[in-house]
Specification:
The structure is a single chain. This protein is of the alpha+beta class. The chain is 42% helix and 22% strand. Strands 1, 2, 3, 4, 5 and 6 form a six-stranded mixed beta sheet that branches. The protein has a two-stranded antiparallel sheet with strand order 7-8. Strand 3, helix 3 and strand 4 form a beta-alpha-beta unit.
Length: 233
């Protein structure tokens, strides 16, 4: 099977499942406050497992353990076709439409590296959009008229970056860029290298300022003046 055909089938089937979940839960009983994203994700995880119990392609779906904030996936499932089982890591992202231009952390590059080491490749982001209502929240379409935005990490927008916390970041509204799996590996390591070089440059600049000693001298002088005031009490 052609790789592109394989990937397209995965995404289209995932989208169908999530669309069913949203149709059944258009206005979930969740407050649109600080933990709305986590609660929406929990809802989607549980419902995904239910909806794929007898699915043609998705088998053995498991939701992330409750409270496991560091888990590399929200749902793990197996895409099964013609005797082949492909592990899929699913990461749900609930986005308030008023925050659709933000740049959230989307995970450490270490987890995709670990997944590739294991012989698999597909970490899938599924973005769901919501807005606050008088009774809680409801699922809505984004500015691009999408109820669901879904793509593999391998196709993430080339504008993504790695920050000093070792987290990947990308603008929520950035459009994905289709690329091969090998191309993604190359781009990922370019971004990691760029990030480390930025950190090195920042550290070199900071060290240069420290070596001047101006700030330290000033602080010592201010401290002496403060101590003298206390001694005179």
């Amino acid at each position: 099977m052609d790789i592109k055909e394989f990937e397209t089938l995965i995404l289209s089937e995932l989208k169908k499942v999530v669309e069913i979940i949203l149709q059944k839960n258009p206005e979930p009983n969740i407050s649109a406050k600080s933990r709305a994203g986590a609660e929406i994700s929990s809802l989607l995880e549980a419902q995904f497992v239910i909806e794929t119990q007898n699915h043609k392609y998705f088998k053995k779906s498991v939701a992330s353990p409750s409270g496991a904030t560091k888990n590399p996936w929200d749902v793990i499932t197996y895409f099964c076709i013609k005797g082949h089982e492909e592990v899929l890591w699913i990461d749900f992202k609930a986005v308030k439409v008023s925050s659709a231009d933000s740049n959230p952390d989307i995970g450490t590059p270490d987890k995709i590296i670990d997944l590739i080491y294991s012989g698999y490749f597909y970490l899938v982001y599924i973005f769901i959009y919501y807005e606050e209502t008088n009774n809680g929240l409801k699922f809505v379409k984004n500015a691009g008229n999408e109820l669901i935005k879904i793509y593999f990490l391998k196709d993430i927008s080339s504008t993504f970056r790695r920050n000093p916390k070792n987290q990947l970041q990308v603008n929520i509204s950035a459009k994905p860029d289709e690329r091969t799996r090998e191309d993604f590996i190359n781009v990922l390591f370019e971004k990691i290298e760029e990030s480390h070089r930025r950190q090195i440059d920042i550290s070199k600049k900071a060290l240069k300022e420290l070596q001047k000693g101006d700030i330290k001298k000033k602080l010592i002088e201010i401290n002496k003046q403060s101590e003298e005031k206390i001694k005179k009490l």
